[in-house]
Design a protein that fits this description.
With about 260 residues, this protein is α/β, with parallel strands linked by helices. It has 2 domains: about 150 residues, TPP-binding domain (Rossmann fold, 3-Layer(aba) Sandwich); about 70 residues, SIR2/SIRT2 'Small Domain', CATH 3.30.1600.10. Helix content is about 40%, strand content about 15%. The protein has 10 helices and 9 strands. The chain has a 6-stranded parallel beta sheet with strand order 3-2-1-7-8-9, with helices on both faces. Strands 5-4-6 form a 3-stranded antiparallel beta sheet. A hairpin with a 5-residue loop joins strand 4 and strand 5. It is elongated. About 40% of the residues are buried. The structure holds 2'-O-acetyl adenosine-5-diphosphoribose. 2'-O-acetyl adenosine-5-diphosphoribose binds next to helix 2.
Length: about 260
Protein backbone atom coordinates (compact mmCIF):
# COMPACT_ATOMS: atom_id res chain seq x y z
CA UNK A 1 0.00 0.00 0.00
CA UNK A 2 2.86 2.32 0.79
CA UNK A 3 4.32 1.59 -2.61
CA UNK A 4 1.06 2.80 -4.12
CA UNK A 5 1.21 6.09 -2.25
CA UNK A 6 4.88 6.50 -3.19
CA UNK A 7 4.03 5.90 -6.85
CA UNK A 8 1.44 8.68 -6.70
CA UNK A 9 3.93 11.00 -5.00
CA UNK A 10 6.54 10.23 -7.59
CA UNK A 11 4.16 10.82 -10.50
CA UNK A 12 3.17 14.18 -9.01
CA UNK A 13 6.80 15.18 -8.49
CA UNK A 14 7.71 14.11 -12.01
CA UNK A 15 4.86 16.10 -13.52
CA UNK A 16 5.74 19.17 -11.46
CA UNK A 17 9.39 18.97 -12.49
CA UNK A 18 8.51 18.36 -16.15
CA UNK A 19 6.13 21.32 -16.12
CA UNK A 20 8.85 23.57 -14.72
CA UNK A 21 11.25 22.53 -17.48
CA UNK A 22 8.66 22.96 -20.20
CA UNK A 23 7.88 26.53 -19.25
CA UNK A 24 11.52 27.58 -18.69
CA UNK A 25 13.49 29.71 -21.10
CA UNK A 26 16.82 29.22 -19.37
CA UNK A 27 17.99 26.22 -17.42
CA UNK A 28 21.00 25.73 -15.15
CA UNK A 29 22.21 22.40 -13.82
CA UNK A 30 24.47 21.72 -10.84
CA UNK A 31 26.00 18.25 -10.74
CA UNK A 32 28.07 16.34 -8.21
CA UNK A 33 29.74 12.99 -7.93
CA UNK A 34 26.41 11.10 -7.98
CA UNK A 35 25.94 11.67 -11.72
CA UNK A 36 29.11 9.67 -12.42
CA UNK A 37 28.38 6.89 -9.90
CA UNK A 38 26.63 4.77 -12.53
CA UNK A 39 29.74 5.07 -14.71
CA UNK A 40 31.68 3.33 -11.95
CA UNK A 41 33.39 6.41 -10.50
CA UNK A 42 32.93 6.33 -6.71
CA UNK A 43 31.36 9.31 -4.92
CA UNK A 44 33.20 11.12 -2.13
CA UNK A 45 31.03 10.65 0.90
CA UNK A 46 29.95 7.03 0.36
CA UNK A 47 31.54 4.32 2.48
CA UNK A 48 33.32 3.06 -0.66
CA UNK A 49 34.40 6.65 -1.43
CA UNK A 50 37.66 7.70 -2.91
CA UNK A 51 39.11 9.04 0.26
CA UNK A 52 38.78 5.71 2.05
CA UNK A 53 42.45 5.02 2.41
CA UNK A 54 43.54 8.61 2.53
CA UNK A 55 42.47 11.41 4.84
CA UNK A 56 41.29 14.37 2.75
CA UNK A 57 44.03 16.48 4.32
CA UNK A 58 46.67 14.22 2.75
CA UNK A 59 45.45 14.14 -0.84
CA UNK A 60 43.23 17.16 -1.40
CA UNK A 61 44.90 20.14 0.25
CA UNK A 62 47.87 22.33 -0.73
CA UNK A 63 49.63 21.38 2.52
CA UNK A 64 49.17 17.66 1.77
CA UNK A 65 50.81 18.22 -1.63
CA UNK A 66 53.67 20.18 -0.07
CA UNK A 67 54.25 17.33 2.43
CA UNK A 68 54.07 14.42 0.02
CA UNK A 69 53.67 15.25 -3.68
CA UNK A 70 54.34 11.65 -4.72
CA UNK A 71 51.41 10.35 -2.68
CA UNK A 72 49.13 13.04 -4.12
CA UNK A 73 50.24 12.24 -7.67
CA UNK A 74 49.72 8.50 -7.11
CA UNK A 75 46.19 9.31 -5.93
CA UNK A 76 45.39 11.58 -8.88
CA UNK A 77 47.07 9.32 -11.43
CA UNK A 78 44.75 6.53 -10.26
CA UNK A 79 41.76 8.83 -10.66
CA UNK A 80 42.92 9.94 -14.12
CA UNK A 81 43.22 6.35 -15.29
CA UNK A 82 39.84 5.41 -13.78
CA UNK A 83 38.17 8.42 -15.47
CA UNK A 84 39.77 7.49 -18.80
CA UNK A 85 38.26 4.00 -18.60
CA UNK A 86 34.76 5.16 -17.59
CA UNK A 87 31.97 5.79 -20.08
CA UNK A 88 29.27 8.45 -19.76
CA UNK A 89 25.98 6.97 -18.54
CA UNK A 90 22.32 7.66 -19.32
CA UNK A 91 22.30 10.58 -16.86
CA UNK A 92 25.14 12.33 -18.68
CA UNK A 93 23.47 11.65 -22.03
CA UNK A 94 20.18 13.12 -20.78
CA UNK A 95 21.99 16.34 -19.85
CA UNK A 96 23.40 16.54 -23.40
CA UNK A 97 19.84 16.30 -24.76
CA UNK A 98 18.75 18.97 -22.30
CA UNK A 99 21.47 21.33 -23.54
CA UNK A 100 20.53 20.65 -27.17
CA UNK A 101 16.91 21.45 -26.36
CA UNK A 102 17.69 24.74 -24.63
CA UNK A 103 20.45 25.58 -27.13
CA UNK A 104 22.20 28.79 -25.97
CA UNK A 105 20.12 29.02 -22.80
CA UNK A 106 21.74 26.24 -20.80
CA UNK A 107 24.64 26.14 -18.35
CA UNK A 108 25.99 23.00 -16.73
CA UNK A 109 27.85 23.74 -13.51
CA UNK A 110 29.73 20.73 -12.20
CA UNK A 111 31.71 19.97 -9.07
CA UNK A 112 33.13 16.91 -10.80
CA UNK A 113 36.67 16.77 -12.14
CA UNK A 114 36.22 13.63 -14.25
CA UNK A 115 35.51 15.45 -17.57
CA UNK A 116 32.56 13.11 -18.21
CA UNK A 117 30.14 15.90 -19.14
CA UNK A 118 32.36 17.17 -21.94
CA UNK A 119 33.14 13.61 -23.04
CA UNK A 120 29.38 12.97 -23.24
CA UNK A 121 28.97 16.08 -25.42
CA UNK A 122 27.91 18.97 -23.19
CA UNK A 123 29.45 22.24 -24.33
CA UNK A 124 28.59 24.99 -21.92
CA UNK A 125 30.20 23.41 -18.86
CA UNK A 126 31.65 25.27 -15.86
CA UNK A 127 34.04 23.01 -13.96
CA UNK A 128 33.98 24.62 -10.51
CA UNK A 129 36.59 22.31 -9.00
CA UNK A 130 38.97 22.01 -11.97
CA UNK A 131 39.58 19.00 -14.16
CA UNK A 132 41.66 15.83 -13.93
CA UNK A 133 42.85 16.35 -17.51
CA UNK A 134 44.68 19.52 -16.65
CA UNK A 135 47.96 20.18 -14.84
CA UNK A 136 49.33 23.46 -13.52
CA UNK A 137 53.03 24.34 -13.30
CA UNK A 138 54.10 25.69 -9.93
CA UNK A 139 57.03 27.44 -11.68
CA UNK A 140 55.62 29.24 -14.75
CA UNK A 141 51.94 28.78 -13.72
CA UNK A 142 51.02 27.49 -17.16
CA UNK A 143 47.93 25.29 -17.31
CA UNK A 144 48.14 22.33 -19.67
CA UNK A 145 45.34 20.16 -20.98
CA UNK A 146 46.24 16.57 -21.72
CA UNK A 147 45.08 12.99 -21.93
CA UNK A 148 43.94 11.13 -18.86
CA UNK A 149 47.11 9.09 -18.50
CA UNK A 150 49.35 8.19 -15.58
CA UNK A 151 51.93 10.99 -15.38
CA UNK A 152 54.19 9.21 -12.89
CA UNK A 153 55.04 10.22 -9.32
CA UNK A 154 56.85 13.50 -10.04
CA UNK A 155 55.75 15.13 -13.30
CA UNK A 156 57.69 18.23 -14.35
CA UNK A 157 56.88 21.11 -16.71
CA UNK A 158 58.37 20.55 -20.16
CA UNK A 159 58.89 24.31 -20.57
CA UNK A 160 60.45 25.46 -17.30
CA UNK A 161 61.20 22.21 -15.44
CA UNK A 162 58.96 23.30 -12.54
CA UNK A 163 56.89 20.88 -10.53
CA UNK A 164 53.39 20.14 -11.87
CA UNK A 165 50.29 19.78 -9.75
CA UNK A 166 46.79 18.62 -10.71
CA UNK A 167 44.62 21.58 -11.78
CA UNK A 168 42.06 20.70 -9.12
CA UNK A 169 40.56 23.02 -6.52
CA UNK A 170 41.64 21.54 -3.20
CA UNK A 171 40.20 22.27 0.21
CA UNK A 172 41.28 25.67 1.53
CA UNK A 173 41.69 26.93 -2.07
CA UNK A 174 39.75 29.49 -4.06
CA UNK A 175 37.76 28.61 -7.18
CA UNK A 176 39.40 29.51 -10.52
CA UNK A 177 39.04 33.21 -11.32
CA UNK A 178 35.70 34.28 -12.72
CA UNK A 179 34.06 30.87 -12.58
CA UNK A 180 31.90 31.62 -9.55
CA UNK A 181 30.62 34.79 -11.19
CA UNK A 182 29.68 32.81 -14.33
CA UNK A 183 27.94 30.11 -12.30
CA UNK A 184 26.05 32.66 -10.19
CA UNK A 185 24.99 34.54 -13.33
CA UNK A 186 23.64 31.34 -14.90
CA UNK A 187 21.67 30.59 -11.73
CA UNK A 188 20.35 34.15 -11.43
CA UNK A 189 19.14 34.04 -15.03
CA UNK A 190 17.52 30.61 -15.05
CA UNK A 191 13.92 29.69 -14.36
CA UNK A 192 14.82 26.11 -13.41
CA UNK A 193 17.87 24.83 -11.54
CA UNK A 194 18.35 21.08 -11.70
CA UNK A 195 20.56 19.75 -8.90
CA UNK A 196 21.87 16.25 -9.61
CA UNK A 197 23.88 13.84 -7.48
CA UNK A 198 25.39 16.20 -4.96
CA UNK A 199 25.26 15.96 -1.17
CA UNK A 200 25.08 19.81 -1.21
CA UNK A 201 27.44 20.24 1.72
CA UNK A 202 30.52 21.69 0.00
CA UNK A 203 30.56 25.48 -0.40
CA UNK A 204 30.50 27.68 -2.32
CA UNK A 205 28.93 25.23 -4.83
CA UNK A 206 26.04 24.35 -2.51
CA UNK A 207 25.32 28.07 -2.15
CA UNK A 208 23.97 28.10 -5.72
CA UNK A 209 20.83 26.37 -4.43
CA UNK A 210 19.71 29.15 -2.02
CA UNK A 211 20.81 31.68 -4.66
CA UNK A 212 18.22 30.18 -7.03
CA UNK A 213 15.53 29.94 -4.36
CA UNK A 214 15.97 33.38 -2.85
CA UNK A 215 16.12 35.49 -6.01
CA UNK A 216 13.10 37.38 -7.31
CA UNK A 217 11.31 35.73 -8.89
CA UNK A 218 12.75 32.45 -7.57
CA UNK A 219 13.80 29.63 -9.87
CA UNK A 220 12.18 26.25 -9.53
CA UNK A 221 14.78 23.92 -7.98
CA UNK A 222 14.54 20.23 -8.85
CA UNK A 223 16.71 17.79 -6.93
CA UNK A 224 17.66 14.43 -8.44
CA UNK A 225 19.48 12.15 -6.01
CA UNK A 226 19.54 8.59 -4.71
CA UNK A 227 18.58 9.92 -1.28
CA UNK A 228 17.50 13.12 0.42
CA UNK A 229 20.30 15.59 1.10
CA UNK A 230 21.17 18.72 3.04
CA UNK A 231 19.24 20.67 0.39
CA UNK A 232 16.08 18.53 0.21
CA UNK A 233 14.01 20.50 2.70
CA UNK A 234 14.36 23.67 0.64
CA UNK A 235 14.02 22.43 -2.94
CA UNK A 236 10.69 22.62 -4.76
CA UNK A 237 10.62 19.06 -6.00
CA UNK A 238 12.73 15.93 -5.52
CA UNK A 239 13.09 12.90 -7.74
CA UNK A 240 14.76 10.23 -5.64
CA UNK A 241 16.43 7.39 -7.51
CA UNK A 242 19.47 6.84 -9.74
CA UNK A 243 20.22 9.82 -11.99
CA UNK A 244 20.64 7.47 -14.98
CA UNK A 245 16.99 6.55 -14.56
CA UNK A 246 15.46 9.76 -13.18
CA UNK A 247 16.89 12.17 -15.78
CA UNK A 248 15.68 10.24 -18.85
CA UNK A 249 12.25 9.92 -17.19
CA UNK A 250 12.18 13.64 -16.51
CA UNK A 251 13.09 14.48 -20.11
CA UNK A 252 10.50 12.05 -21.39
CA UNK A 253 7.80 13.57 -19.14
CA UNK A 254 8.78 17.05 -20.37
CA UNK A 255 8.76 15.81 -23.98
CA UNK A 256 12.40 16.84 -24.45
CA UNK A 257 14.77 14.98 -26.76
CA UNK A 258 12.31 12.27 -27.65
CA UNK A 259 13.10 12.56 -31.35
CA UNK A 260 16.82 12.96 -31.15
P1 LIG B 1 29.31 13.56 -2.52
O1 LIG B 1 30.06 12.27 -2.53
O2 LIG B 1 29.36 14.39 -1.30
O3 LIG B 1 27.77 13.25 -2.78
C1 LIG B 1 27.38 12.40 -3.80
C2 LIG B 1 25.86 12.45 -3.87
O4 LIG B 1 25.46 11.66 -4.97
C3 LIG B 1 25.16 11.90 -2.63
O5 LIG B 1 24.16 12.82 -2.24
C4 LIG B 1 24.53 10.59 -3.12
O6 LIG B 1 23.30 10.31 -2.49
C5 LIG B 1 24.33 10.89 -4.58
N1 LIG B 1 24.31 9.72 -5.48
C6 LIG B 1 25.09 8.61 -5.43
N2 LIG B 1 24.81 7.80 -6.44
C7 LIG B 1 23.84 8.39 -7.18
C8 LIG B 1 23.13 8.06 -8.36
N3 LIG B 1 23.36 6.93 -9.02
N4 LIG B 1 22.19 8.93 -8.82
C9 LIG B 1 21.95 10.10 -8.16
N5 LIG B 1 22.58 10.46 -7.03
C10 LIG B 1 23.52 9.64 -6.56
O7 LIG B 1 29.77 14.36 -3.82
P2 LIG B 1 29.66 15.90 -4.15
O8 LIG B 1 28.42 16.50 -3.59
O9 LIG B 1 29.92 16.03 -5.60
O10 LIG B 1 35.47 18.55 -4.01
O11 LIG B 1 30.91 16.48 -3.38
C11 LIG B 1 31.22 17.83 -3.51
C12 LIG B 1 32.70 18.05 -3.47
O12 LIG B 1 33.24 17.47 -2.29
C13 LIG B 1 33.47 17.40 -4.59
O13 LIG B 1 33.50 18.16 -5.76
C14 LIG B 1 34.84 17.27 -4.02
C15 LIG B 1 34.49 16.81 -2.62
O14 LIG B 1 35.34 17.05 -1.66
C16 LIG B 1 36.76 18.66 -4.36
O15 LIG B 1 37.44 17.73 -4.72
C17 LIG B 1 37.25 20.04 -4.25
Amino acid sequence: MHAHIDDDDFATALEKAAFALRRSQRVAVLTGAGISAESGIPTFRASDGLWENHPIEDVATPSGFARNPELVWRFYNARRVAAARALPNLGHHALVKLEQHFAGNFTLITQNVDAMHTTAGNRNVLELHGCLRRTRCLGCEQILDGDLIDLGPEPLCSDCGGRLRPDIVWFHEMLPEGIWESAAEAVLECQTLLVVGTSAVVYPAAGLIPLALDKHPPAMVIEVNLTKTAASKRVDVGLYGPAGEMLPRLLCAANIGVNG
